[in-house]
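Progress report, Aim 2. The chain analyzed during this reporting quarter is listed below.
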Amino acid sequence: MESRNPVFSRRGFSRDNGYAGFNAQAGGPAVGTQANPYAQQAGNPYAQNPYAQQGVGAPPQAPVTPGAMTMDDVVARTATTLGTVVLTAVLSWLLLPVDEANLGKSYGIAVGAGLVAMVLALVQSFKRRPAPALILSYAALEGVFLGVISSAVSTYISDGVVAQAVLGTMAVFAGVLVAYKAGWIRVNRRFYGFVMAAALGFVLLMAVNLLFTVFGGGDGLGFRSGALGIVFGVIGIILGACFLALDFKQVEDGIAYGAPREEAWLAAFGLTLTLVWIYMEFLRLLAILNSDD
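Predicted structure tokens for the chain:
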């Protein structure tokens, strides 16, 4: 099972009839029509997929397998990872002031932490197995970055923006979860392809805008400010919501097909990346709206 998030590649994501095949190579067999992809692991009791004869992609109820990932595992790992982000964000908010005397130093630390966090996230994204220490290190450094940025927005834009961004992120998470469980969102191959194409275009466009900002000064191409900034902020939030649906599908299939317990760390990693993405898009959007007042 590989992490699903708005930035990094989706290795091993193959589908048949709209359902994920974990760790399958492109063009390989997908779960629901062939042998269980976890059957290659030593001691796996599911050498043959018991659902292969049912003609469905996912079982109605996950079997209980010793050492297999459960929803409790995913919740616990996600709480640990997000808790690390929140803790370091609060500490950096308190310990790295963004007043005029310390603004440059605090920004420097935040940018450095953000860059290292990005590198760690990329390393984990290309690893075949989760590394809890790597994931938690990413979460801690990402929290430092978010804490300083949030403090700066709260200080120079509006006191209520950060709370609104947090509430907005929670609302999107709850809304997508309800819609996914109710069957209003169907995660299939077409959905996956559309989201990936849209996300790739979005990221490339933002990268070009950043280059113009760095070398040309000002707001670059204007995609992150004014009316265009509002439009792209909304698009970013919608993309984040779509990736949440992919995350939920990944967790559901991992539990259903007896993914090893360590895969819960990858689920937590993917959910954390997606929630950070949504929070940053909310924060940017609300900052633009409040600065125009």
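DSSP finds seven helices and two strands in the chain. The two ends are 45 Å apart (CA to CA). These observations will guide the mutagenesis work planned for the next reporting period.
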